[in-house]
Amino acid sequence: MSMVYSEDDRMLADTAEEFLSAQSPVAAQRALRDKPTAVNFDEKIWQQMLELGWGAITFSEDLGGLDFGYKGMGAIFEAMGKHLSASPMLSSVTLCGSLLQQLANAEQQTWLTAIISGEKRLALAVDEHARHDPDSMQTTATTVVDGFVLNGKKTMVIDGVSPDGWIVAAQHNAGCSVFIVPFSEQVKVKRLNLIDARNYAELTFNDLKLPAEALLGDAGNSLKALQQALDLGRLCLSAEMLGAIKALFDTTIEYLKVREQFGVKIGTFQALQHRAARCYVELELAQSCVIAALSDADKADANLASSASLAKWKLSKVADLISGEAVQMHGGIGVTDELDIGLYLKRIRVAQMCLGDADYHQARFAALAP
Amino acid sequence: MSELTEFRQQVRTWLEENCPMSLRTPTPDGELIWGGSEVNFTFDDQRQWFNSMRDKHWFCPSWPTQYGGGGLTAQQNSVLESEMRRLKCRPPQINLGIWMLGPVLLEHGTELQKQQFLTPMTRGEVRWCQGFSEPNAGSDLASIRTSAVDQGDHYLVNGSKIWTSYGDKSDWMYALVRTDAKAPKHQGISLLLLDMHSQGVQAKPIDLISGKSSFCEVFFDNVAVPKENLIGELNGGWKLAKELLQHERSAMSKFGEFQLPTHFDLMSLMSDYMPAPHSASEAALVNKAVAANMEEQAYNLTVQRLGAEMQAGQSCFGLMSIMKLVHTEQEKIKFELLLDAMGYRGLGWEDDSFSEQEQAITRAWLNSFSQTIAGGSSEVQLNVIAKRVLQLPENKGVS
Fold first, then answer.
1. Which one of A251, A255, A268 makes the best mutation probe of the B interface by having the most chain B beta carbons within 10 Å?
2. The domain at A122-222 falls in which architecture?
3. Which pLDDT tens digit goes with each residue over B285-328?
4. Which CATH superfamily is domain A228-368 in?
5. Which site among A127, A302, B108, B370 is 20 to 30 Å from A91 CA-CA?
6. pLDDT tens for each residue of B265-281
7. Which residues of A touch B329 (CB under 8 A)?
8. What band does B1 get if pLDDT is binned at 50, 70 and 90?
9. Three-class SS state of B361
10. Keywords, A to Z (chain B) (predicted)?
């Protein structure tokens, strides 16, 4: 396992940093929140990200990818976390891209080529309840003469408003099948307005008729592929959270160095120094979990499931600690909307819940242990 | 074949011929060999391994040959270390003098001091202890009061030291003493080498909450120390002490490789003692154990990352500074959890109703309390991180 970034990964990180701080700083996310658009991300920035090749990073060259690996992708997500840049990278490229890569037949692969280039955008519909739980879905697919019929309801579909299509997981043939559902008026879409002001949707399928070619992979046999895609999503989300908490932590340390109270810099107080030092320690431990999971994603025989769960668990815990301390150490100004801290806090909270919170991943890690 | 590859080949052959098979296993408690005037071997292979390594001058492989060292380059030394790790060779001896005082003497000692003190170290003939901590000083090392008063040709030492590991079994001590009572507290301190067999030295083991311990209290009553045993400049001891503590940290990390007295597999021990499924405490215990296991995993990955960053030539000062803190705190949490799982069975003390393993865990739990204090308390580590890594401002009122 390689626990450090390569020169190439670093170059990618530098490019991402340069691009995002110029084109998509936190102020841009604030503007999107204050003047919501149809999809709550900047379509122009998204297209530029794809032109930079970000959609292609993890895919092999014969699919039009760069064959660069997840450590490179992690660097991109960390930079997006740092700048709170909203984009469909997670939903379309990581989650749906991975499912297509694993399950698509030759014809369906045109979807993959299209999402790598950014010509099309897909969103993955898995969750149905108040928590992430892909093992107990109630949405059903029934096989009929010339295709399938889909019934049920999906929630928290990331970037689920106005995509070119959705990939939907459902109970089918006593197992789990995944279907490509091209955008259609017959799918009822309800926009969800969440604290992080991003693009989430609730979908309802009432006897939705799907053609035979909508099925990805073998009927009733796609849970493993789904979990694999979700694990890749989980570690990208972990990398994004890492970027966000690093930004929060750095801002807070800077504040401790300049803010004066009782006639001295508050950073001289040992009570605060020790809490800051604890945050630093936890941040470093979290970073190790992320880089290990990214590295496992690039290795065929690695136990990606448990390292992804470890990363998501650790990041969720440390994000709680650091976002809480960032607000508390800033004092009153920390709870004002004027400061960006609140934007980070809200985005982190959503990212914690997405694709499984700390409790989910702790239980999963234990179940996966030999 | 490059010279280094050739060297590796030679080292491998030599180790395979000279390190007895019985010593290519982790060192159990009680089988550590401490070098010194009274070396104790529990079986003959240990003596043979000790003698072979001594005669090869590999107790101190990278020290100059003129003082009895092996004269290896840094690269050769790391080849030797990695080959020893590969064969799982036990360290032939443990000696604080070599690990901590030696490097300081090599840099700051006079020619005479180097000859007098380094050569016996490289032969494992002298056992050293560290005389830094004092009663009432605690983590505030600069507030020591043991005095060394200039008597013309010698110093007269009075006072006491505490938490001196194996003070009762050591031949010599490197001690911090106050040589100028009037100077600001960091500036009146000197580093002095003291013969533990001198008139007026008394060492007394300290019983801990976990039972007998290797820690001692050492008393000095008008102990005469020759002036040539002063290392470096008079009143310049603070700087040397800081250097020495740096060596201590890197030595501790090596010590950890050889023997981790508190390292154990939490999940497998927990499963020995877990209460019945669905009994009152089970769910909470399982949750806490899984979390502790995951935290340990995060720590282990960080150790791996530290290694990778060091190999890649990156600065890893920040990562280094969190190791001691995190490891000792995690061990403490793990022992608490084990005690919770053991219930009444974790409360035995020298009673044959409790198994040896149970009593060992109970003592290790009690001992884990000292780990977050010894070698720089958790709070001292947090201070180091806050000030040196995060560079938070100093409070001018407190030194």
1. A268
2. Beta Barrel (2.40)
3. 999 999 999 999 999 999 889 888 887 888 888 888 888 899 88
4. Butyryl-CoA Dehydrogenase, subunit A, domain 3 (1.20.140.10)
5. A302
6. 788 888 888 888 888 88
7. none
8. low
9. helix
10. FAD, Flavoprotein, Oxidoreductase
Nearest Cβ partner for A310 among B297, B325, B392: B297
B388 touches chain A (CB under 8 A): no
* Strand extents, DSSP E, B29-127: none
Compute the count of residue pairs across chains A and B with CB atoms less than 8 Å apart. 105
Q: Is B343 on the interface with A (CB under 8 A)?
A: no
Q: Is A40 on the interface with B (CB under 8 A)?
A: no
Q: Give this complex's ipTM.
A: 0.93
- Taking CB atoms and an 8 Å limit, are A292 and B392 in contact across chains? no
Q: What is the pTM of this model?
A: 0.88
Sorted by where each begins, the domain ranges of chain A are: 7-90+109-117, 122-222, 228-368
- Chain B residues in contact with A288 by the CB 8 A cut-off are 298, 301-302, 304-305
Cβ pair A125, A154 in contact under 8 A: yes
- pLDDT tens digit sequence for A216-225: 999 999 999 9
**Lowest mean per-residue pLDDT among B110-119, B200-209, B261-270:** B261-270
Looking at residue B40, what DSSP letter applies?
Answer: -
> What domains can be seen in chain B, in order of their start residue?
3-94 (no CATH), 127-235 (2.40.110.10), 261-389 (1.20.140.10)
Instruction: List phi, psi (to 5°) of A228.
Output: -60, -45
Classify residue A119 by its DSSP letter: S
Q: Touching check for B318 and chain A: CB below 8 Å?
A: yes
Query: With a CB-CB cutoff of 8 Å, which residues 234-253 of chain A face chain B?
Result: 253
Strand extents, DSSP E, B57-211: 128-131, 147-150, 154-165, 172-178, 189-195, 201-205
Q: According to the model, what pLDDT value does residue B275 have?
A: 83
Measured between CB atoms, which of B302, B386, B390 is closest to A288? Answer: B302
Judged by DSSP in three states, A159 sits in coil
Q: Which residues of B touch A365 (CB under 8 A)?
A: 290, 294
Q: Write the CB contacts of B138 (distance below 8 Å, at least 6 apart in sequence).
A: none
Looking at domain A7-90+109-117, what is its CATH homologous superfamily? Acyl-CoA dehydrogenase/oxidase, N-terminal domain (1.10.540.10)
